Amino acid sequence: MPALVVFNRRWRIGSDDLVVPSFVEFVVRLAWLVVISIVFSLHRDAFDCAGGPLLHVFYIGTLTLISIHEVLLMIIMYISLQGTIIDTRPRHHMPKMVYTKALLHLPEVAWICMGTYWAFDDSVDCDVDVTNTVKVLVVTVWVCLFLELVGLIVVFDPFGGNSHVVSNPSTPRDLEEGDTETVMHQAGSRFKKMWQMRCKYLCCCCVGCDEHSQNAFSDVGQLFAEFFSEEVDLTPTDIAAGFILLKEEQDSRPKTLRSIAQRSQPTSTSTSIPPQVPEGGATSQRLENNGIKPWMNIQALAHYMKFAQAAYGWPLFMFGHLVTGPCRLYKECRCCTCPSPPEHIRNDNFCACHTAAILKTSQVDYEDIVFISLHNKIYEIPFFVALDHKGQSVVVAIRGTLSLRDVMTDLTAECDTIEIDGVSGALGHKGMIQAACYVKRKLERDRILDIAFHRGQGYKLVITGHSLGAGAAAILSILLKPQYPDLMCYAYSPPGGLLCQSTAKFTEDFVCSVVLNEDIVPRLGIVTMEKLKVKVLKIIKDCNKPKHKIMTGACTNVICAVTRDNSDDGSTTSLLSSSSRDSPRYDSIVTHFQESLQSAIVNSGQSRVTNQRLWPPGKIFYIEEADKSSSWCGTPSYLPHWAEMEDFSDIIVSPSMIMDHMPDAVSKALDILAERNQMPSICSGTSVVRTQPNSSDGDATC
């Protein structure tokens, strides 16, 4: 940071990122230097043959070129190790070294071309070891040159010829105010078009190019252009180092949800309340007073999670049963019978593997499947409807993200209105509103729910889903609430940027969300991403340690599975310092984002990318892993808590923030809690309601 500028272009790599590639190349060239030296010394007299003098010259020239490269690589490594992420002054000679190395490639390529011709020339009749060494060498060099070309493509910035000029702090001072605004506007327009083209070329072959796709490409391009604007000169490794530093800072202070654990942690004498709360008891009354409905119990949460898992079909089933999966599905699949697909199962594959996985995971009978739709496009997601006789309910289960089309639906994160009777200004995630409306239209057009309730007289409606499916399920429950006032929605790992605050509060009566540990998705939103960007910028700016030490320390922690002590040189306190606050350019960048963030928080939650701050839906059942060390050698221990939406206003950087989002991890945690009948304690004001172990009616005391 800033990005390296050579050949009048900005590249996606910094001058402190060349340590590892230079070291790898140094080791490879050193190995060849040793091999060639040994072969040359052992076969010094073997060049008196046809073509021998040419190979002799090639050996000497190759040794000379490799030696020069080795010296240059050591210089590059030494320079790249100097300075800090922000302080690039000790590395100001790096462009000269890059130019020198590029020039050295010219004679090397010419020399390798001649060596290739000499080594594979049939007229050359020398010792086998001599010729074979040259053949292997030239092949290896060509492979290395190809890998270097791939590396150049990876770090190539298509707009590097313009972006580094726009982001240069000296440029605005050389332009008048109107000219500066024009340049920045033109740059922003280019970035938007660039992201739109990237989305189009990346996704068109997989998701098609219909009207929905074009609109999604435009929306996502606008979002990425705004969020990843080139006003911050960061490289990918700068961001990675910032995340590492931020994690260390977060680990050094109590987590955001630690207050939840303190205010609702069960006592040692009793860790649970009955899974089914008796009506009329004191516990039931306190549950109602706190907005917790009786159906929001651990047994129901664990039960309906199986339906949310089942919606993913055979891919998730096979992921959870890598060895035995095919055998488990064999009985339900119909690859050999070749029947025509039934009317109520649409778009399944030839063997009906998705249907088989749904039956196995949800543990319902084939006759209880009312409808399955596996049609998948942007804004149109798969779902199924089944009768759950155990819970006496009609279940609508919506699939989460499993395809590139679903990703485009996730990324269409602009705000859109939701029509709710009695609620004005209801806003939500545009892509998930579109997906929920698609499911609603499908249910109404084919009269699927009418058929289901005709077969299940007196049953209740349950809507469930995971991730994208959870967001669509929550919005679908809002849309269906007028027709089915007693419906219930179980949203597992829902998106954090789903509903505006008033709408999220509105859903607390009929939506129960489940969040596992440090899952990133329920904390993910445009505003939280902007807050994360500000934190990363600030922590990078205050860091006085070289990037390679940050990366090495993180790798050491992962390999050794240890946490640094605060007194260690790698601790956060030693990484952060005010000594690097003499960078006016990055002072202005951080101040700009701080002002943008403050405006986003204060002014009705508005941000510069979206028009409204969005939140996760309903009552939130938060599951915290009590002892992570036990999960390596035994059954993990979990603590359940009731959380507020505001508790998920910050992203927690953690190695488990992705794995905690996986449906199998959520299901495992719920199964463990259900087996122990473990539910959160109920808070009423400042008192904590806890179940007594000898309470016969499930009543509780404060």
Can you walk me through this structure?
It is a single chain. With 702 residues, this protein is α/β, with parallel strands linked by helices. The protein is built from 26 helices and 16 strands. Strands 3-4-5-6-9-10-11-12-13 form a nine-stranded mixed β-sheet, sandwiched between helices. The longest helix is centred in the N-terminal third of the chain and has 31 residues, at 177-207. The chain is elongated, with a radius of gyration of 31 Å. This is sn-1-specific diacylglycerol lipase. It comes from Owenia fusiformis. Residues 254-284 are annotated as: Disordered. Its main location: membrane.
What are the key terms here?
702 residues; alpha/beta; nine-stranded mixed β-sheet; three-stranded antiparallel β-sheet; 16 strands; 11% strand; disordered C terminus
SSE blueprint:
Elements: E1 3-6, E2 9-14, H1 19-42, H2 52-80, H3 94-119, H4 128-155, H5 160-166, H6 171-174, H7 177-207, H8 211-227, H9 236-251, H10 258-264, H11 282-289, H12 298-310, H13 314-320, H14 325-330, E3 345-346, H15 353-362, E4 369-373, E5 383-388, E6 393-398, H16 404-411, E7 415-417, E8 427-429, H17 430-445, H18 448-455, E9 460-466, H19 468-480, E10 488-492, H20 501-506, E11 511-516, H21 526-541, H22 547-560, H23 572-575, H24 584-602, E12 619-625, H25 630-633, E13 638-643, H26 663-675, E14 682-684, E15 687-691, E16 700-701
Helix pairs in contact: 1-2, 1-4, 2-3, 3-4, 7-8, 9-21, 9-22, 12-15, 12-26, 16-17, 17-19, 21-24
